[in-house]
Amino acid sequence: MILTSLSLYLYRLPLDRFLPVGKQRIDHRTGLVLQAKATADDEVCDTEKFNIEVADSEVTEGEVKESNVEIAPLSGFDIDQQPLSGFSRESLDEVQQALTTLLPKLQGQHIDSLLEQAEASPYPSIAFGLSLLHAKLSGKLNALRPLTTAVPLIYQPIDAPKAELMAKIAKLDSSVHSVKVKVAQTSMEDELSLIYGILSQRPDLRLRLDANRGFSLEQALDFAACLPLDSIEYIEEPCQQPQENQTLYRAIPLPYAFDESLNDPDYQFVRHEGLTALVIKPMLLGSIEKLQRLIDEAHSHGVRCILSSSLESSLGINDLAHLAAILTPDEIPGLDTLAAFSQDLIVPSGKPQCLKPHQLKLVVSTQQD
Length: 369
Ligand SMILES: O=C(O)CCC(=O)c1ccccc1C(=O)O
Ligand SMILES: [Mg+2]
Known about the structure:
The chain is of the alpha/beta class. It has helices at residues 44-50, 92-106, 112-120, 124-137, 163-171, 188-201, 217-225, 244-251, 282-285, 288-300, 314-327, and strands at 2-21, 24-39, 64-71, 153-154, 178-182, 206-210, 232-236, 256-258, 275-280, 304-307, 344-345, 354-355, 361-365. The chain contains eleven helices and 13 strands.
């Protein structure tokens, strides 16, 4: 297939409530939508020769394929105007500029050039976006049903009453077996009482805790000593110093997971005692091929891989649900981050409004009118 047109749009979605990014909070999300049209190799000449835009009604099904992907590095500023730290290293501006230069070069090329450019890009969000676009255009993403269940995310909202949390627990479907709970955010007493509160309502639940590197070793030891270990699946990034996670594990057998550690550009998989899972955020890591290599390596050492949201819009979350069905079919992904979004983007998820590309700001388009 040949790429016949590429367009880049900018979105900015306000959030109805703050979303946690580690210890920080955001009140809006910005990102890019990359739209590509492609035709089968032998059809491109006709359209080019006559320089006509092929309307959907004039072509047989499947002749012109159109796909959209979200490219939204998790960087920018929090509600206190502090730069977000610990997630994407690239800024939205850098990504926008790189794509503005790249898109005209992709125009007229075979879709496989998306994969070459994905591997060549220094920006993980671009590498992921281009490889995803390739997968969508070539129909690879729709081969399987998406994983429609996600692990509910429970966190103490500073802008909403605490009772809402327990109401969310009470409403959980009985088919939900795991929930993710943010810890190392407020006081240990409050967080332990939340954990025991959840389990008193739903003793069958298993908890995935996420400390976002919020504890000193001493705090982590104190906290872990008070946990109902049998009900804890794992804790993400317990210690400020990741090398202390093993010390913690040797003292208290609480399995842990890596999340922020994977964002280090030099990260290489190494089996550590007590390391039970990798929390994989594709937008922060890179191409699907790179994700697949990491997952294969982790699985070969018996380490689980959980695909997780980088707070994408409904477009990105929907693609992650499809990708999870392919890359990690035996795991429930961590994608419960859409509730705070005021609107959907391109793919409906049940919000009153769903923005379409023409309602977004066009950054660049290779299509000549
Ligand atoms: O992993 C999940 O279930 C939801 C996603 C999530 O928690 C998250 C989303 C964006 C940035 C950081 C994190 C995090 O794991 O702390
Ligand atoms: Mg995490």
